[in-house]
Design brief:
Number of helices of chain A: 16
Structural class of chain A: alpha+beta
Number of strands of chain B: 17
Strand order of the largest sheet of chain A: 11-10-16-7-8-15-12-13
Distance between the termini of chain B: 27 Å
Number of strands of chain A: 33
Oligomer: heterodimer
Helix content of chain B: 40-55%
Largest sheet of chain A: 8 strands, antiparallel
Structural class of chain B: alpha/beta
Strand content of chain B: 15-25%
Shape of chain B: globular
Strand content of chain A: 25-35%
Amino acid sequence: MNREEKLKRQSNIRNFSIIAHIDHGKSTLADRILEKTNALTSREMKAQLLDSMDLERERGITIKLNAVQLKYKAKDGEEYTFHLIDTPGHVDFTYEVSRSLAACEGAVLVVDAAQGIEAQTLANVYLALDNNLEIIPVINKIDLPSAEPERVRNEIEEVIGLDASEAVLASAKAGIGIEDILEQVVKIVPAPTGDPDAPLKALIFDSLYDAYRGVVAYIRVVEGSIKVGDKIKMMATGAEFEVNEVGVFTPKSTLVDELTVGDVGFLSASIKNVGDTRVGDTITNAKNGSTEPLPGYRKLNPMVYCGLYPIDTAKFNDLREALEKLQLNDSALQFEPETSQALGFGFRCGFLGLLHMEIIQERIEREFKIDLITTAPSVIYDVHMTNGTQIKVDNPSNLPDPQKIDHVEEPYVKATMMAPNEYVGAIMELCQQKRGIFINMQYQGENRVNIIYEIPLAEIVYDFFDQLKSSTRGYASFDYELIGYKPSSLVKMDILLNAEKVDALSFIVHKDFAYERGKVIVEKLKELIPRQQFEVPVQAAIGQKIVARSTIKSMGKNVLAKCYGGDISRKRKLLEKQKEGKKRMKQVGSVEVPQEAFMAVLKMDDNNTKK
Amino acid sequence: MIKAAYLHIPFCEHICHYCDFNKVFLKGQPVDEYLQALEQEMVLTLNKYPTDKLQTIFVGGGTPTSLNEKQLERFCESITRNLPMSRNVEFTFEANPGDLTTEKLQILKDAGVNRLSLGVQTFNDELLKKIGRVHRAKDVYQTVENAKSIGFKNISIDLIFSLPTQTITDFKESLTQAFTLDIQHYSAYSLIIEPKTVFYNLMQKGKLPTPGEDAEAAMYELLMEQMEKHGFNQYEISNFSKSGYESKHNLTYWNNDYYYGFGAGAHSYVDGWRRSNAGPLKKYMGLIDNGNLPIFQEHQTSKAEQIEEEMFLGLRKTDGVSIAHFIGKFDIDPLEIFKNEISDLIAKKWIEVKKDNIYLTKTGRLLGNEVFQAFLGVSN
């Protein structure tokens, strides 16, 4: 292609994402758009095609981003090239959302016609506005009996401040309004600007590891062009590579000769490590490249840490390999070896958030078949020592002796919750319980309230979201961002089983809640740890002081006294099941402890609410 | 050689709240057709897997005594016609107290039935009501009385402990009543809550007040102590008898010997194959009508499985596993293949090995399942 052709093509490119709250219909809409642009024959159509990882489909969430190139013949007679870039919907992946939005010029905002705007959507719309994206509001699910499109239209105008008079009324499920959306994309989303002859500037907005090709980087070309054989450089890391292949997803991955301004596609260059292709980094030419990277790159820091230990100690190296493989694909995952007296050798791992943590655990257990003991998640504490030094503690058992500590600071988040009026009381009560500091409350539209609190991240980590959902019957939505550290009166609570301290069960708690939590956790552990051959005292201690105790009684009886009329196979199965259950437990000192017990600290409040 | 046969009558006039055996309400069922199919199954099976003389026959249910007199007579005839019995066969019928009229007792007696197993469960009328039984304590005395007068000399009753709301005192009272009967055998089982029962559903809703693990263990200990005191020998975890009245049929299972299983949902173990029959009546009868054995599932046990089963079944007996018998049967010394497990269990004081026997200690009896599990998945 010569310059003229490139510019002509560029003017017919439209790059956009879809922003939506979970369940508001993003995946279904994406499927419909693929159908409408004939990207797939209906026979190839697999429901919710963009969510390709099993785990993603099971949980109904998008973890990894995908970018699809589509051809659309618009009503003006022109053929347009669309790039639809998928975004994760979960708060753990906010940074990835912001990078994928940075690869677009527009966004389709999908709002459920019955439920209205949710906190998560709002957060992502603001991200989109920060990236100067044009927003196309779509009111989805209008065919639901409970749909109130006019109310939602007002909400979009009042809450976000967008002009929603042109908002498309759609039902992705029923295929209503899809063409209107595509026409608006043509009309409203601007064509990419940029000089195809300038030095290369391409944004990496995602990457994945392929066993044969090495890292595949998902890129958006902003300036210049890129083709096979080009020598390229990663501007943040300085690493240089030679391009092996460039291509686009249609959604099948399809090799092309060249990617130029406005194109969204992929490249591979025998890159061994995802760390070399950091999301947000800019790719340029190795020689005579650009000196100015695209804005917005930052290194991702984990917010939540936990210990991962193989139940079978012989699998330590397998676990290391699993983590290494996962890290190839996920540079936000961090880990380093650690030792626990109770659990042996394992890894302290850092995650973007709780969901990220759960996903990694699940993938290790499923894909690598390693049974894990996971310790309760912790945040990073800033510990100021009496001698003037400062240390960071990401494992509660490493908190120094109280007499050596001047004070401790913990991370706080700004938590934004949106819910119908009637749940304001419940939300505020929950936030107070979680040591929240009230910041602001705004009424939005007739019946919705936006509540803002500052809450210690540690409290968010302890099943805040589940409790929020249950105390608002699922109506509240929630988003948070880290705002920095604040001093807190925190103490370490140790747990003793059979008079032995179990380091993996230690946790850090606010002084004012310590006694209460100590009581709850010893009871919870009593419930979760099965009876042993001997009586096991369970104690919670702060320093030398025991603050709560209970006792797991010794095993009484475990006899199957009935014979099932000769059904020996069944009896055998029952015995095998019992035996299998034991294998899932970890021997800690002389006590067999099941995985759930290590997460008991998370379930404490759950216990409280039931009482 | 197969020496034992179990026959299943899946009909009940009332369904008990804890029962998960294969059973249906009697009313409107094709009982005669079922008895016909059952006879056909015996014919087909004996042709395929012949045997010489059976040592034990056990008719269970369901409720075998829910059959009317005519049906009962016909059923008994089909057994004697098709199953070869040794002269001193142990021929047991399960029965509900209250169901056994003098006429039915006489039919059984005439057919050669020489042992009765009565589903008493408890002597507390309130509890009987709660667990869905329709007989009352007085029916038990009457039935035992009638059976004795007709000439039955080997009578057993079943008791259940750890019933919902049952206290240790309740259970002790039931035992006291039980010992007034002057019978030869007792089976006492602790309640297991099984899926697809009334109790299970109540439990799921949190509405089943069971006595708890500690009370259950206390009741079991009380049971063993009382049985010993009254001269009944505990020959197996749940079974007690006067000397010479051990149930030969039950021992078939614990000795890991072969047995036929006839009837809907019945289980069998023949020539190394464990099989279960189709449970639903229509299915069961349909298979037989087409000339097939009514098999629903079958599994050929591996030698490893047989060895493990020999251990965990045998250990239920007070005498435990005979080492010589084990070696004779499998050509392997159990003390060798289970060396680690056995020394670990001895160290825990759960089993002992003396002369020819490996057996549970008193503590081990309370923790039977812990012991049994140890032998699983080891020998291969």
